[in-house]
Design goal:
This protein is an alpha+beta fold. The chain has helices at residues 3-29, 179-213, 218-237, 241-245, 251-276, 283-302, 305-333, 339-363, 375-418, 435-445, 450-457, 461-475, 480-487, and strands at residues 33-36, 42-44, 54-57, 62-65, 88-96, 103-106, 113-118, 121-126, 144-147, 153-161, 174-177. Helix 3 runs antiparallel to helix 9 (375-418) and helix 8 (339-363) packs antiparallel against helix 9. The protein is elongated and about 105 Å long.
């Protein structure tokens, strides 16, 4: 079988693995969810099937911007507005459902303060809702409420305040379903998040271990850092794991950490690209990314959330331009790409495009226009899989090259011994050298410089110096010339 055929089979195998995991995660993450919107604050689910599915109501609420209305006045008052962007206000939603059943409602609050009324009764205060910013405070939560309909109706009224984000008030997504199905949905989400975070942590530890054993390969360290940063991002946004783990941290700290994590992801990604594809990013572009990202990070640290969430749209536009530039450069420079390069490029492009799309949808688009399925976590898995496979293939190729270089040097050494007039000669095996020390010695005898040896064995120059000192000490010589004279002379 030719090498080209083997390469195609490897690509098909790796792509098959990625697609299989993609499908598995998609099936695992959620039970069947029906997406729909209200009409003038009303949703009719009276004939809906709640036995195996849940219903996510996304948009179409009655909206009263700039007013914190009493819940009882909202059903009768048709004077409402669809205008988004208010910093505080009220929402109203009436859901018709089959009577004599119990239901579970689920909502999400990230950077909002929300007061929740169900059937006219105050159910929850998520943070502090107020007309003024100084009197209000948001809180992240994913509350679940168990409710009984009244005359086949569930009335949901919300007071909200958002004085901290680029957008004003948008209606939240409310999911309703039978308690058993909603519990199953929550268990799947927790399992999905745990699996994803465990996967990222394992990948990070594995490649950090590779870096410890091969410190000359900076790509291993950068990839381990990427996995950790993606894990932090998932922990902040995927079912808000970190909010649960660190309840004492304020929303401002967690919000800033999320945005700083995005910036660090961009910096590490650029350096990873440079390590994987030397010369891909021209120096002015490389420096521009670092300068713009550092400036935006200073903005996050120094200014308030409202300011730096406005600026995020500009930062994302800049990074989108960098992605387009990088993709074009890849297409122009990688004329005959190796298998690991093709895998790396495919995973990287998918990950970057999906990340920018989801961040842009989160910052710029209203909730009703955002994608229902969170694509970024699955794109993370695809990215880690493709990069991991790419790094494994590269590692295997480098190990093979190291063995070949050492084999060539060893063969030359044996040939030099063979041509001696008398035997036996002094052999390396007479001195009890470790395997790596023997490899370094063979390359020294072959005339390689210490820098060339470091490159041939994928180790640092300092490690080569240490091996040389040990070799000279064990053989009782002071340098390469003495080593050559000792090993290529007759034994007395």
């Amino acid at each position: 079988m030719s090498d080209a055929v083997k390469d195609r089979l490897r690509i098909a195998f790796y792509v098959g693995i990625v697609l299989a995991i993609f499908i598995f995660l998609g099936l695992m993450r959620d039970v069947r969810t029906v997406q729909l919107s209200a009409e003038d604050g009303v949703v009719d689910l009276g004939s809906a099937d709640f036995s195996g599915r849940v219903y996510a109501i996304n948009g179409g609420w009655r909206h009263y911007p700039g007013e914190l209305r009493p819940p009882e006045s909202m059903p009768q008052d048709a004077d409402h507005s669809d205008a988004p962007g208010a910093r505080y206000g009220s929402y109203y939603l009436r859901i018709s459902v089959p009577d004599n059943e119990r239901y579970t409602l689920n909502m999400i609050s990230i950077d909002y303060a929300t007061r929740v009324f169900i059937n006219g009764e105050l159910m929850d205060d998520i943070g502090m809702v107020a007309e003024r910013r100084e009197d209000s405070s948001p809180r992240t939560d994913r509350p679940y409420y168990h409710v009984y309909p009244v005359d086949g109706q569930v009335e949901l009224a919300l007071h909200y305040a958002n004085h901290w984000h680029v957008r004003g008030g948008d209606s939240t997504i409310v999911t309703i379903g039978a308690p058993r199905i909603m519990a199953q949905r929550q268990a799947r989400r927790v399992g999905y998040t745990s699996l994803l975070m465990g996967y990222l942590l394992t990948a990070s530890a594995l490649f950090f271990g590779f870096y410890v054993t091969q410190p000359a390969v900076k790509g291993h360290l950068l990839f381990a850092m990427l996995c950790l940063l993606i894990l932090v991002r998932q922990g902040l946004t995927g079912d808000q794991v970190f909010h649960t783990m660190f309840p004492g941290l304020t929303w401002r700290v967690l919000f800033a950490v999320e945005y700083l994590d995005i910036c660090l992801l961009a910096l590490v990604m650029v350096n990873y690209l440079n390590a994987l594809f030397p010369g891909l990013l021209q120096r002015p572009v490389y420096l521009a990314v670092h300068a713009v990202t550092a400036s935006y990070m200073l903005t996050i640290v120094a200014l308030d959330t409202l300011t730096y969430t406005y600026l995020l749209a500009f930062y994302l536009a800049f990074m989108a331009a960098v992605i387009v530039y990088t993709t074009v450069r890849m297409a122009l420079t990688l004329r005959n790409p190796l298998i690991e390069q093709m895998l790396s490029v495919a995973g990287m492009v998918v990950f970057l495009v999906v990340t920018l799309w989801e961040m842009a949808s989160y910052v710029i688009m209203p909730i009703s226009m955002r994608p229902a399925f969170p694509m970024m976590p699955t794109a993370m898995v695809m990215f880690v899989l493709t990069q991991g496979n790419s790094m494994f293939i590269l590692l295997r190729r480098r190990i093979h090259e190291v063995h070949m270089r050492v084999a060539v040097a060893e063969a030359r050494y044996e040939e030099a011994i063979r041509v001696q007039a008398e035997k036996p000669q002094v052999l390396l095996s007479d001195f009890g050298l470790a395997r790596r020390e023997e490899q370094v010695a063979y390359l020294l005898i072959d005339g390689k410089s210490r820098a060339e040896i470091a490159g041939a064995l994928d180790i640092s120059l300092g490690t080569v110096n240490t091996y040389c000192s040990r070799i000279y000490q064990k053989l009782g010589v002071t340098g390469r010339d003495d080593l050559m004279r000792l090993l290529l002379t007759k034994k007395t």
